[in-house]
Amino acid sequence: MPRLAKHLAWFAVAVLGAFALSVVALRRGEAINALWIVVAAVAIYLVAYRYYSLFIATKVMQLDPNRATPAVLNNDGLDYVPTNKHVLFGHHFAAIAGAGPLVG
């Protein structure tokens, strides 16, 4: 998808969210469908996820995919052991009581 089309799609999501918020704000004293609130919230979450998370990743945290993790730097075979990301997510979900039997 071309870059301009992506920006136009995100602009459309932002306009939809602004319209939903304006409906909620301007309908004083009348019954408002809860769908307007849900649409506004989802639009705000999507725009924030796309742009604010990019700002956090690049400017605040300065994430670098080439940087070595502590498991690689401090590999002692006990506490710090490099592992596959799928195994790591499996251990994360195994700690949740409901998903424990699924992972093993």
From TrEMBL:
Entries under Pfam families matching the protein: CstA
Domain annotation CstA N-terminal: ranges: 33-104
Cellular component GO terms held in the UniProt record: plasma membrane
Alphabetic keyword roster: Cell membrane, Membrane, Transmembrane, Transmembrane helix, Transport
Keyword Transport: yes
UniProt record, GO biological process: cellular response to starvation
Location of the protein in the cell: Cell membrane
Regions that span the bilayer: 35-52
Membrane topology field: Multi-pass membrane protein
Principal location class: membrane
Matches recorded under InterPro entries: CstA (IPR051605), CstA_N (IPR003706)
Family: Belongs to the peptide transporter carbon starvation (CstA) (TC 2.A.114) family.
Entry protein name: CstA N-terminal domain-containing protein
The organism of origin for this protein: Pseudomonas syringae
Species classification: Bacteria, Pseudomonadati, Pseudomonadota, Gammaproteobacteria, Pseudomonadales
